[in-house]
Amino acid sequence: xxxxxxxxxxxxxxxxxxxxxxxxxxNPKALPEALGRVVGGGVQGxxxxxxxxxxxxxxxxxxxxxxxxxxxxxxxxxxxxTASHMCEGDGANxxxxxxxxxxxxxxxxxxxxxAVLTLVAHKDEEMGAxxxxxxxxxxxxxxxxxxxLQDETK
Length: 154
Prior knowledge:
By secondary structure, the chain is α+β, with helices and mostly antiparallel strands. It has 4 helices and 5 strands, in the order ααββαβββα. The protein has helices at residues 7-20, 31-36, 65-86, 127-153; strands at residues 43-49, 55-60, 98-101, 106-112, 115-121. The chain has a 5-stranded antiparallel β-sheet. Helix 1 packs parallel to helix 4 (127-153). The chain is globular.
């Protein structure tokens, strides 16, 4: 697939790509640094949570990350279940993410390689830009998170 970059975000994505495909990325201690690569330019913070709501990693300004992790994990699980009931076959794969427009900001959240990826942005961040950043981070993190979380369960 083709990834279109906006100029202010392009250099961050190039650095993120180089970092994510390095061997140290599979180290769970490197996750906050990887998430921190998308913080800025309207995105206040990034959060990775387990499906049970436990926080895996955070970067930037994520206030009350425990509550945010719990709420987004439950919302993601509920939306995935609803998609699987509404669609024949594997409907859960049809649900990728949610964009939520709140009074004081915007949130992009969804499942990512066995975890829940959430970006928190300022109210003035464009939804299209937030969607693009979430999708780019998702595409890069999903394989590494899948491998990491499978190793943790063994």
